[in-house]
Amino acid sequence: MTLHLLSVLALGLMCGSELNVAAFAHPMLNRQPLGVHVRMRASLAALFGRVMPFWMAGSTLLNLLLLLPLEHLNDSAWRFAAVAFTIQVFAVVLSLVGPVPINNRIAKWTPDSLAEDWQVQEHRWDQYHWIRTAGLIVAFAVLVLSVRAR
Is the pLDDT assigned to residue 86 strictly greater than 90? Predict the structure, then answer.
């Protein structure tokens, strides 16, 4: 049961962080003067670029461990955990092909070195991020159902 709760906690905290960025941090940054906006967006991109690979991989690994026989989940709990794991894997793959390359570019931006299409890149990153966040929230809800089904 401890592994199950750790999995829920790790995914839940990540969902909260991702939702904060999507719903609050980036919209607030979009209302700032360009110099502040670019510096903060680059700083956040650099920070999350270092942290999120470990957090996403760790959370997904915890969920994978739930699927092993050592956790002794009943059929319903196992199925819910498997669905949550599958969504998390899709979120990781989406991250690698969508927002991560854009994030790596944003992390290097300064007010003097903006790409010509910087607003398009930010908008594209935000769109990928909302899709990923929605998927992770669904995975979290399904993982909570797994605990309940246990």
Answer: yes
